[in-house]
Amino acid sequence: MGTLTLCINRRIKDIIGSTTLAITAKVNELKANGHDVVNFAAGEPDFDTPKSIKAAAIAAIEKGLTKYTPTSGTQELRETIAAKFKKDNQLGYKPSQIVVSCGAKHSIFNIIQVLADEDEEVLIPAPYWVSYPEMVKAAGAISKFIPTTAKAGFKITPEDLRRYAGNKTKILILNSPSNPTGMVYSRKELEPIAEFCVKNNIFVISDEIYEKLIYDTQEYTSIGALGKDIFERTITVNGVSKAYAMTGWRIGYAAGREDVMEYVKKFQDHATSNPASISQAAAVQALKEPEDGIRAMRDEFRKRRDLMAAGLKDVSQISYVLPQGAFYLFCDFSKLGFSEQIARQILNDVKVAAIPCDSFGAPGFIRLSFATSAERIQEGTKRIKEWIRQQAAC
Ligand code: PMP
Ligand code: GLU
Fold first, then answer.
1. Whose CA is nearest to atom 3 of ligand 1?
2. Which of 33, 250, 263, 327 has the fewest C-beta atoms under 10 angstroms from its C-beta?
């Protein structure tokens, strides 16, 4: 018998595992072994899912809603999502234009597989969420990164698009509020971006998963709401993970042109079918919840953001731009070395877990999540400052 040579599919063989998930696993392992780790790596709210949402899931089990649902999600959930889009985002999607998936991650993955053909280009502003380029690889398409700077608020402009878009450009991925930078695009900033995409026939995937977590403004603009033409070219993605502390329930959703969404549905037919029926019932309840719960969570996150920012304010070796949304402080550690090495040392030496942003297209930067208690934020920033002092003394 000959030796079995392992030949992995060429679209899959270069895929890199998720840094966020790997570090989270490492933190859990250290904690299980009794280490007092401050977790600034978490990409999820530390709050518990609200009781009323849990109750809706329990009721669904008791009512026997434990069977397959339509692949795209139950009619009730899609109607509830359509109503949410209308109320919060001024987006007029019909339930037939919505597909519910196993998390917004799954929604984005589906859309990229459906729209991006081999060798077509997907524009990704950098820094970006770690999973986008890997999803593009899986489609056999090409990521084209648009660099941004702290000075420009880590945002792209139409000039950037003119520079980086070409005749192979198919999609632009926009993520506002952004993971990892926390930046939020205003309506004024989105308008010329929308105009460019319409003129150049570029689809926009608008990842709005952190929509409810914005701090210094009440205004939130969905790019798809800026006119009929951009609405046609935008697939809007959202989910319940971040706004309702429901990361484990795995419900995300996408809405767009009927023809595109029909392919998303067909693709999902053969992958996962519907997302869990019980989680869908819980998501209906989440989206009908009064806004007070979200407001309370957001106010708490704002306090924590300010506490973390204040804790690291006077450290001359590092800098940050105050995030307007999401729950990450995106810090420039480049004066101290490479981010992967720094994050490893901080974890080893003072037991603070953080995400090095090399795989977010931001070498030299480290993402510190403030989705943890005020007490842990104070403890963690104290440890980081102490660690930096020790480095300076060496
Ligand atoms: N987009 C961004 C920017 C994220 O940070 C995440 C992380 N959870 C997701 C999408 C996916 O969220 P989920 O799959 O939990 O809905
Ligand atoms: N999106 C979160 C993060 O960036 C959760 C982990 C993940 O799915 O990547 O940390």
1. 179
2. 33
